[in-house]
Write a structure and sequence with these properties.
The complex is a heterodimer. Chain A is of the alpha+beta class. Chain A contains 19 helices and 25 strands. A seven-stranded mixed beta sheet of chain A has the order 5-7-3-14-11-12-13. Chain A has a five-stranded mixed beta sheet with strand order 9-17-16-15-10, sandwiched between helices. A four-stranded mixed beta sheet of chain A has the order 18-23-24-25, sandwiched between helices. In chain A, helix 14 runs parallel beside helix 15. Chain B has one domain: 2-Layer Sandwich (Uridine Diphospho-n-acetylenolpyruvylglucosamine Reductase, domain 3). Chain B has a five-stranded antiparallel beta sheet, with no helix packed on it. Chain B has nine helices and twelve strands. Chain B is of the alpha+beta class. The chains are: A alpha+beta, B alpha+beta.
Chain lengths: 734, 270
């Protein structure tokens, strides 16, 4: 029965209260452990298609008569367009139309960051559009730039409201402590750098719009575009069948989509607007830099008595202030917590969600300082974390729907025990060590989400739902769930997705939510089909016959099942947990750091596809290694202009930087969560990587790194400081 | 822009071989030649004893046992396999700095302007030596190796020691090489040392320009040392690094260079 409920909806750690129509989730969960199909490794059902280059991504699309767009973006971090003349561009060869700031709300004269879109030209070829763009005459008035996040906060230049939060009595907690440690940590701006750059192809069919876009949320695009254009939502069809990565940066339509739509309208042609790699590295979002001033207070036995954090998110010209204080609030049982979080509005490109936004940065600071405490108390870092374990949300005593972090710690012990042997492999110049860090993040997904399952007389099934597979392998996971529920082989299931006009509403693919949101709906739809087939079987007097035999009588008739995602458990926090153990080597003379091994144990409820899951863990860890060691978007400190817009200057990790990765999942269904008991895994693996590496560096060398990335400069500084501490300590006779 | 194929070593226009450097510079508008001349037919390639054709790819050099260790290693640690399969040694020696201001076409001194933006700005990858006028760092690993090895360059016009191929930019002349317009590097004569080595510090394990590269070659009882990534040109080291003039954010390079120098000396003196 359909039910109207008011529920908290969480995406990327942000909650909102919403009214939802949901259906009861009447199915019992499957027993724990691998089933026939679910819980067993499956290669991607679209793997061959992708490897052969047959899968059509937005970037591959060529519609008849399609025009190409080049976008004029502000070269300055803060400037006003005092005059602009498009006319020289419109007479250039191949040009069909041009747009300026007066033509479209997404184009602006007031540019608060380098990369803000000002004008656009479409032409028969991209080269023609680019050549024409150079003919546009712009007069710029350059304005003062504000780049220092602390100064922005002091001046009250903020993005969003500051968050001042506390539980218990922080001062009292400090007074009760035997030891207090403090530290300032800084993280850098890093870029998503999806393989497929941000892009859209827009085509008007009469008054209805067809939009092909590389996106994490076809329904969100449909609604935002329809609302902006004043169209009925169903007059906007959004398609994204294959997608080349988003990592949080492709949740919304953005300037390029509205540019393509408007130019398509004016030219009555299909129009592509695709960003170049250089634009991608300016104008499509980033993980913003943070400053974290942290305090940890504890009893001599390691019991935490107070946690404090003053956080500044250098959000840029827009975006939102990510929950960088989240781990401090959720990870441990500490009764007294006080944090302030400020979003600094500076003349830099706006942030966007990036794989566990806030928690990656916050975990780095918190977990690194916790190891400083462990050293001060002469406690084993893993033991310190066990002693502060919590079984509920310490802020409001809400229970976690399931939590197997202690089991993660237990399974991580073999990795942790290697530290003695690893340290013993140190030489005079190369020191080796092991560090660990805990992981906490969201990933429960939620309603609404719907799926249909169609079974034909050939015994094959098609899952129909307008979700998207953003490259994570959810297409395969959904097929596994349907195959399991129907009792048919995986090869007999296909999945139709990525098209708002061909399937029901489906969840955003962000916040580790695709599998936990969509999986239960797909299972419910398959179960609905299975029930109908069983009813037919009963009428045929073949209650125990296999599905294929029963449906073979159907001819053109079809079994149509439908399913909806039920609600999340009320009064409970649905979170994911884990631990990573990093082994690193540090050349103490040259400051070179490299990672030699990472052991990862995560708890995300039931695992649908262990093969897909291990590749998600590896991807998260590799992205985490880049964040920790080499990636850094740099800007000129005087003008705010971006200096690293190409892939030779912005250093993603290469395969040579990737260590041995040993991953394991607890694979225990969350018995409170849906008919599957599965949580999401997209984000958890990147959360603890930086902190585990930083702690391994400390274990290897005694040096405390405070900044990401751990460049040669930062590593050599930390080593110098450690030597100085040792010298002062020795001369003081400590 | 016109593309021609060279039929002799006398050319008019901008030479292009593998294109791994020229094409990005064309795309970013830094090079705007009227004529591009494809010189792949006229520049010799291959290794014969101590002579190396300037058209030999880095990939071929890193594998050839006739090539001294320092040069092989400098090639192996440069760029990516794809780039090394395409780029020639001659082109590598003539590549421009990776200074982001220069690559982004800021009107800096190297582009003829009157300011070095890196000195007051972001310079963590920049020069620690001879950086008074321009703080750009020369990115070629093989150039440092050849400088330590004492190579001679044979061009279409003359022969010169490799050190004389490069010049520091000055207010009157911003060029970093001494090549005349249309002059092509054809061959290199690389003496065989008793021992040689190339060590490189970079920001990831592969496919990065040198923060610091150190080449050392020992011949006849003396050791020559040259550095990459520390000055606007490949740098022949005389004495130690006491004369280094690091900028506020790149003093770490002096420490890195000292450590690599000790190791390089130990390796060739052993």
């Amino acid at each position: 029965m359909a039910r109207l409920i008011k529920t908290e909806k969480e995406v990327e750690g942000r909650y909102e209260e919403v009214w939802l129509v949901v259906e009861e989730d009447a199915l019992e969960q499957w027993p724990a452990g691998p089933r026939e199909v679910v819980g067993r490794p499956a290669t991607r059902i679209d793997g061959l298609e992708r490897a052969r280059g047959e899968a059509v991504y937005t970037a591959d699309l060529k519609l008849p008569g399609m025009l190409h767009t080049a976008v004029l973006r502000s070269p300055y971090a803060h400037a006003r367009v005092s005059s602009i003349d498009l006319s020289p561009a419109t007479t250039m060869p191949g040009v069909h139309a041009a747009l300026g700031p007066d033509d479209l709300p997404q184009l602006t004269r007031e540019c608060g960051f380098q990369g803000a879109a000002v004008a656009a030209v479409c032409a028969d070829t991209y080269a023609q559009a680019r050549a024409a763009l150079r003919e546009i005459v712009v007069e710029w008035e350059q304005l003062e730039v504000l780049l220092d996040p602390d100064e922005a906060v002091a001046r009250g230049e903020l993005v969003g409201e500051p968050r001042l939060r506390s539980r218990g009595d922080f001062e009292q907690g400090l007074a009760e402590a035997d030891v207090v440690v403090e530290g300032e940590y800084r993280t850098q701006v890093v870029l998503h750098n999806s393989m497929e750059t941000h892009q859209s192809v827009a085509q008007w069919l009469g008054d209805t719009l067809e939009l092909y876009i590389s996106t994490q949320y076809v329904w969100g695009i449909r609604d935002e575009v329809a609302s902006e254009l004043g169209l009925p939502p169903d007059d906007v069809r959004v398609v994204c069948n294959y997608m080349g990565g988003g990592f949080g940066s492709k949740n919304s339509p953005d300037d390029y989509t509205f540019i393509a739509i408007e130019l398509a309208k004016r030219t009555r042609r299909p129009v592509r607007c695709a960003l170049t790699r250089r634009e991608e590295n300016l104008a499509t979002g980033n993980r913003n830099a943070t400053i974290q001033r942290l305090t940890i207070a504890a009893k001599a036995d390691g019991t935490l008595t107070a946690l404090g954090g003053e956080y500044v998110n250098a959000t840029g010209w827009g975006g939102w202030s990510s929950p960088v204080e989240g781990p401090m609030w959720l990870l441990y049982a500490c009764p007294n917590v006080r944090t302030s979080t400020w979003g600094a509005k500076i003349n830099q490109p706006p942030m966007k969600a990036f794989r566990a936004p806030g928690f990656v940065e916050g975990t780095f600071g918190l977990e690194a300082l916790l190891d400083v405490l462990a050293a001060k108390l002469d406690l084993d870092p893993l033991e310190l974390r066990r002693r502060n374990h919590t079984e509920n949300d310490a802020s409001d005593d809400r229970p976690f729907s399931s939590k197997n972090l202690l089991e993660c710690y237990r399974r991580a012990e073999p990795h942790w025990e290697r530290r003695h042997d690893v340290r013993a492999c140190s030489t005079e110049t190369v020191k080796r060590g092991v560090g660990m860090a805990s992981q906490i993040w969201y990933g429960g997904g939620g309603p609404p989400s719907y799926a249909w399952v169609r079974v034909g007389s050939d015994g094959r099934a098609t899952v129909v739902t307008a979700m998207q597979d953003i490259g994570t392998g959810t297409r395969t996971a959904m097929a596994q769930i349907a195959a399991e529920e129907l009792g048919i082989p995986l090869e007999h299931v296909t999945v139709s997705l990525g098209d708002t006009s061909r399937g029901p509403f489906a969840s955003i693919s962000a916040g580790s939510s695709t599998t936990p949101s969509m999986g239960p709906a797909v299972r419910a739809a398959a179960a609905d089909a299975r029930r109908q087939i069983e009813e037919i079987a009963e009428q045929m007097g073949k209650a125990d016959a296999p599905l294929a035999e029963i449906v073979s009588v159907l001819e053109d008739a079809q079994i149509l099942g439908k399913g909806a995602r039920g609600p999340n458990p009320t009064g409970m926090q649905v979170l994911t947990f884990g631990v990573q153990v990093a082994e690193v080597a540090v050349d103490v003379e040259t400051g070179e750091v490299w990672v030699e091994r990472i052991g990862a144990v995560h708890d995300v409820g039931r695992v649908i596809n262990p093969l897909g899951a291990s590749s998600q863990i590896e991807g998260g860890i590799i992205q985490g290694i880049g964040h920790t060691l080499s990636e850094h978007r740099l800007h000129d400190p005087r003008t705010g202009r971006i200096l690293t817009t190409t892939l030779d200057s912005y250093k993603l990790p290469t395969i040579a930087d990737v260590p041995e990765i040993v991953s394991e999942l607890v694979d225990e269904p969350d018995r409170h969560l849906t008919n599957l008991g599965s949580k999401g895994l997209g984000e958890p693996p990147i959360v603890p990587t930086a902190a585990a590496i930083a702690n391994a560096i400390r274990d290897a060398t005694g040096a405390e790194v405070h900044e990401l990335p751990v460049s040669r400069e930062e590593m050599l500084r930390a080593l110098r400081d450690a030597r100085e501490r040792e010298r002062v300590g020795a001369s003081a006779g400590v | 822009m016109e593309l021609r194929r060279a039929s002799s070593t006398t050319i008019e226009g901008t030479p292009i071989f593998g294109g791994t450097e020229v094409v990005p510079l064309l795309r970013s508008g830094i090079l705007r030649p009227e004529t591009l001349v494809d010189v792949r037919d006229v520049v010799p390639h291959g290794v014969e004893g101590t002579r190396i054709g300037a058209g030999t790819t880095l990939a071929d050099l890193e594998r050839d046992p006739q090539v001294p260790e320092a040069l092989r290693e400098a090639c192996r640690l440069a760029a990516s396999p794809q780039l090394r399969n395409t780029g020639s040694l001659g082109g590598n020696l003539l590549q421009e700095t990776r200074c982001w201001y220069w690559r982004l076409n800021w009107p800096c001194r190297l582009h003829g302007g009157d300011e070095c933006f890196a000195k007051e700005g972001e310079h963590r990858e920049h020069a620690i030596l001879a950086n008074g006028f321009c703080a750009s760092a020369h990115p070629s690993d093989p150039a440092a190796a050849l400088l330590a090895l004492g190579a001679t360059v044979h061009t279409s016009l003359r022969s010169l020691p490799i050190g004389a191929l490069y010049r520091l930019p000055t207010p009157d002349d911003r060029r970093t090489t001494t090549l005349e317009a249309g002059e092509l590097i054809l061959e290199l004569e690389v003496p065989t040392p008793e021992r040689s080595v190339y060590l490189k510090a970079m920001e990831r394990k592969r496919w990065a320009f040198p923060l610091v590269g150190v080449a050392a070659a020992r011949s006849g009882g003396s050791t020559r040392i040259a550095l990459a990534g520390v000055a606007p040109v490949p740098w022949l080291l005389e004495g130690d690094l006491a004369d280094a003039t690091p900028l506020p954010r790149n003093a770490y390079k002096v420490d890195v260079a000292r450590a690599l120098l000790r190791r390089a000396r130990a390796a060739v003196d052993a």
